[in-house]
Amino acid sequence: MRNFFIPYSIFLMGLLSSCSLFFGNIRSTEEKSSQYTVEELTQLRPHWKKISPSQDSEVTESTRPDLTFESIRTSSVISLTSGCKTRSDSRPAKNLSELTRVLLLGISDLKYKTVCKRQIEKVDALWSSVSGEVNHEPVAMEVVVFQRGDCSYDLILVGRPPLSPEDQDDFAHFVSTFHFK
Predict the structure, then answer these.
(1) What is the DSSP letter of 1?
(2) 150, 35 in Cβ contact below 8 A?
(3) Is beta strand 179-180 parallel, antiparallel or unpaired with respect to 151-159?
(4) How many structural domains is the chain composed of?
(5) Model confidence over 120-153: pLDDT tens digits?
(6) CA distance linking residue 10 with residue 50, whole number of Å
(7) Residue 14 sits in a domain of what CATH number?
(8) Which of 12, 14, 27, 20 is nearest to 108 (CA)?
(9) Which of 50, 53, 30 is nearest to 39 (CA)?
(10) Which of 45, 63, 46 lies closest to 54 in space, CA to CA?
(11) Cα gap 20→29, rounded to integer Å
(12) How confident is the model at residue 18 (pLDDT cuts 50, 70, 90)?
């Protein structure tokens, strides 16, 4: 089961990641942000390993996570994805609830456990704890979404339910290391 969950988690991160997945937008008009720093999770916690971005042809550059880490202990995955509108993109900014909703479109039987507003670098963020199914496989997630200027950011922890308290603590620490340049 563990061997199945690793590629499954990576596929799920590619499917879910990036606030660039907006209705009616099949062709991306977004670029990655270079206006942030975040600590390397592998240096913070040795039981996490950095994994290379998916080379799946279904995953576009704008929806590919900027960073992805996998827990050696639990196979949970943490990712950070950014997307910034290009000058030719005239879509209005979405509110954080809408960004979260769009981000979670691929999950069936979706249940919100908690949703709370937070601040990331003095910017409003929405932190959601959810569970559901993807292809009849149960998943649990922590999702943090925020915007600054023309850029959207999502930080996600995904794993088999229930998420381990240690993975949740590691994710919270990872989120706390996010800083704008």
Answers:
(1) -
(2) no
(3) unpaired
(4) 1
(5) 999 999 999 999 999 999 999 999 999 998 899 9
(6) 12
(7) 3.40.1000.10
(8) 12
(9) 50
(10) 63
(11) 8
(12) very low
The percent of the chain in helix, strand and coil, each rounded to the nearest 5, is 20, 40, 40
Structure tokens at 169: 């603590």
Q: Which amino acid is at 25?
A: N
Q: How many CA atoms lie within 13 A of 114 on its CB side?
A: 7
Distance CA(156)–CA(21), nearest Å, equals 15
Range(s) of the domain holding residue 121: 2-180
Pairing of strands 123-134, 30-31: unpaired
Reported pTM? 0.81
CB 82 within 8 A of CB 65: no
Is residue 143 within 8 Å of residue 130, measured between CB atoms? yes
